[in-house]
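Exercise 7.
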Amino acid sequence: MSTTVANQKFVALDLQATEFDYRPTPVIVPVSVALGVLSASSLLGVVGILIALIGVGVGGAALWAVRSGEGMYSGLWGAVAGLILSLVFALVGITSQVYAYRTEVPEGYRRVSFSQDISAKGFQVTEGKLGLHPDVAALMDQQVFLKGYMYPQRQTQGLLEFLLLKDTGECCFGGQPNPTDMILVQMKNPGGVNYSQGRVAVAGKLKLTSNTTPEGLQPVYALEAIRCERSRSAF
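Solution. The predicted structure, written as tokens, is:
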């Protein structure tokens, strides 16, 4: 009889110990781990870097939540893993963007912002005559490197000539670009270039043009391009 009572007491103590050993994991811990995994997208662009930076913040909060519980919570290693993954991918993503930005301009070419240095300048009236803004006029016949978006055309392969727009406002929604918001790109390599929906980087000599495109658009500027490729950096 005494043995049975002892066994019952042992089982009761064992159940109590099991219940006591159970420690819940804060919800923020698996969220931190998920963000750490998603932070790998930092290698693809700025959005991924933002995810990684958010992951760093969430990972730090998860680690604090577990440690501030003074042993009440589990998930310490999950919080650490999420924080480390997000931090590493954030650093790698930022470093890759900086490297791409510093090395993407061909030697002998000047980086120019299509939006700020060309489009935003517009035209200027001098002595009653409409002409180029002095800053834009200084870019004529210069070797420049700039970025924009290709205007959709029926042909998508081997383009020897295409329109480059400053943003996606007109190129993707069928709008009518202003003359100073587009550049007629004329490829110098015989193979041309394939159409791309993303942002592209173009290097060439900037000129004036009076050509009318098959779509009936009349750009002011033309670029005799030696290179056109997807933008390596997001800036």
